[in-house]
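Supplementary Methods. Inverse-folding protocol.

Structures were first reduced to a discrete structure-token string of length 355. This string, shown here, constituted the complete conditioning input.
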């Protein structure tokens, strides 16, 4: 091994869900939205003046920051935007988790958190969720270097009320508490109502799910202006121009169309409720989801086997080899037609098992 190799920063990277591209596939594996973005997004992209691509984009992404601030009724200096919420969360880890005390996040949660912690050499502990997969607030009452968890949690889909979030923030005034609300628009109640009350609370959201824009890579954080300024200082110490021109322009249009946003997320919630009923009929069990996915298991069938079977039929869902959740599948809510096709494949699998 060359001496230079000993100095490489070694990391075990996060593994994103696969992005197959087959003509008739049913892709329910990465919690994307099955509906297109708001109509004005297409229009603004068609009208983009590509000559302007010679120039750098606005480093503040000011138009997008303003649109988000207006939508949520907060000041512009309370909004930070990044290249997907992954970029926002990575920045927040680097900015706020800078203590010798361990950062806390649940043992079953978004599997990117331990990757960032390892990358930035942040100590962490992972309190166990209960047998019902719920986060136990008491586990977060001890001294720590910061706290993060998604609400609804991923991949469990369980959403806690704002009173639960407030309890954890109130117990942790000495560290930054981040709530990752990637899936909050599907029936949960946002902790944004608390950001003016607690200066150490950072709420993170994304355009990738409820705003149908995973491909544009837009995420944002809202919090006290001191938190946002600290994040901006770190951002400008790495890369000033994070969001590109098309993303900024498309993002503004996506936020401005509140009606379309409400329509599409309601469609997903309706399909989710129908999907839950059909899953129950087939004997699956799952925590009650307030996300755009369900986290299912079945006591008669092996979920790894079902996952592989569905894959051979071009129906993609998500399965982890993690021993804590290996008996579960995470299924994204697609269109009604996509769910019909998925159920057809599941029924076919079940009948072949009996035969
Ligand atoms: N947080 C959670 C809990 C997620 O599941 C995801 C999606 N993988 C993200 C953050 C990141 O999403 P994005 O970077 O697309 O905003």
């Amino acid at each position: 091994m060359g001496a230079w190799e000993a100095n490489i920063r070694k990391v075990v990277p996060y593994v994103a869900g696969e992005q197959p591209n087959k003509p008739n596939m049913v892709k329910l594996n990465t919690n994307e939205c099955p509906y297109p973005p708001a109509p004005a997004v297409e229009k603004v992209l068609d009208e983009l003046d590509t000559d302007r691509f010679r120039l750098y984009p606005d480093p503040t992404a000011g138009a997008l920051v303003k649109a988000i601030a207006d939508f949520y009724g907060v000041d512009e200096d309370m909004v930070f935007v990044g290249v997907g919420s992954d970029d926002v969360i990575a920045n927040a880890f680097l900015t706020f988790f800078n203590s010798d005390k361990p950062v806390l996040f649940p043992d079953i949660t978004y599997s990117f958190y331990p990757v960032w912690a390892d990358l930035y050499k942040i100590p962490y502990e992972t309190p166990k969720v209960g047998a019902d997969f719920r986060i136990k607030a008491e586990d977060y009452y001890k001294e720590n270097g910061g706290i993060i968890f998604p609400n609804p949690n991923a991949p469990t889909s369980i959403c806690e009320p704002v009173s639960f979030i407030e309890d954890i923030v109130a117990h942790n005034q000495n560290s930054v508490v981040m709530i990752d609300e990637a899936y909050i628009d599907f029936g949960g109640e946002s902790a944004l109502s608390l950001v003016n009350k607690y200066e150490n609370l950072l709420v993170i959201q994304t355009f990738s799910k409820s705003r149908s824009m995973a491909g544009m890579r837009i995420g944002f954080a809202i919090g006290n202006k001191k938190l946002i300024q600290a994040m901006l200082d770190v951002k400008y110490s790495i890369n000033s121009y994070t969001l590109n021109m098309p993303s900024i322009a498309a993002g503004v249009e996506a936020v401005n169309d509140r009606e379309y946003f409400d329509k599409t997320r309601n469609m997903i919630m309706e399909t989710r409720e129908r999907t839950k009923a059909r899953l129950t009929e087939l004997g699956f069990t799952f925590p009650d989801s307030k996300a755009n996915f369900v986290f299912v298991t079945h006591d008669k069938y092996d979920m790894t086997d079902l996952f592989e079977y569905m894959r051979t039929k071009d129906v993609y869902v998500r399965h982890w080899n993690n021993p804590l959740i290996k008996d579960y599948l995470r299924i994204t809510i697609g269109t009604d037609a996509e769910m019909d096709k998925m159920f057809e494949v599941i029924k076919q699998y079940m009948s072949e098992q009996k035969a």
